[in-house]
Design a protein that fits this description.
By secondary structure, this protein is α+β, with helices and mostly antiparallel strands. 28% of the residues lie in helices and 36% in strands. 15% of the residues are buried.
Length: 95
């Protein structure tokens, strides 16, 4: 299995959209073959080292994770995140 974790910094002018961005993530849940789980949420601490938004997904295989990258349900969410983010970091690991 593959766990995919992404942390996003959101541009100041889009921070009011964070609840909608979280909803966009949850809109993918159950709609992408091989995605076993999805969690997303906004940061609550707002510390100096905090990111604004987190996405955690679990895939049954590397093939499913690779297919997710171009899945039609994922593409509009990915496009919007590219528009509103000022930065992101990711970690993907097998378990």
């Amino acid at each position: 299995m593959i766990r995919h974790i992404v942390l996003f910094k959101i541009k100041d002018e889009y921070k009011n959209e964070i609840p909608q961005l979280v909803e966009n993530f949850y809109g993918m849940k159950g709609k992408i073959e091989g995605m076993l789980d999805l969690e997303a949420g906004a940061d609550v601490l707002h510390s100096e080292r905090s990111y604004d938004l987190a996405l955690i997904t679990v895939f049954d295989s590397m093939e499913s994770f690779t297919a997710y990258q171009t899945h039609p349900v994922h593409l509009p969410v990915k496009k919007r995140m590219h528009e509103v983010r000022s930065g992101s970091v990711a970690c993907d690991f097998e378990f």
